[in-house]
Amino acid sequence: MQYILIADDNHDITDVLSNYTKKEGYEPIVAFDGEEAYRLFENYNPVAVLLDVMMPKEDGYEVCRKIRSKSNVPVILITARGEDFERIMGLDIGADDYIVKPFSPSEVMARVRAVLRRMTRTEKDLKSGNTIAVSNMIINLDEYTLHIDGKKVALTKKEIETMWTLAKNPNKVFTRDNLLDSLWGFDYFGDSRTVDSHIKRLRAKLDKIEHGKWDIKTIWGVGYKFEIEE
Question: Are 73 and 168 contained in the same domain?
Fold first, then answer.
């Protein structure tokens, strides 16, 4: 049985999402506060997590941080507020997607399908080779780690996947839509600013360590590429 964890202190929302989850062939497990959500996550090992931001005891951000510290399971945050800084914060701590209330349950399940398809594509990449080494950088997708000169760089899951996609295809230009399709799934409901925000934060973290032989380059009006110096 494959489980989807639904965490929200609104019983009407959990009831609706539970029904839609069952229609998709999954078994819902429901939590009404952050502490219960994390406990159920550890007990059931769900394939995806729908996580309300504003919950009693522990908020969704804290639960997401805990989940991401030990698992790459897809996490979709749900909130009643849609400010950009909150969405960016959720993505920064490792969430895969972000939904603002009120929402369509059908849209929620479409996003779940999208992140699960993306996870399947990542698993296929792992079978074809789980490590990339370029100059002084090593990316390991088994462990979701990136090291430069032997030093581990603290990156989110999405940042690791972004770097893997670019570095696996050196000097290939990816449009923003290419990256959205590859990293968020064909049914992602965001826009190209999501890619720009991730690349900006990824660069800021990588630039803290010297890496003279390679870089992420902006191709103005097109997108990005991983460039290796001759």
Answer: no
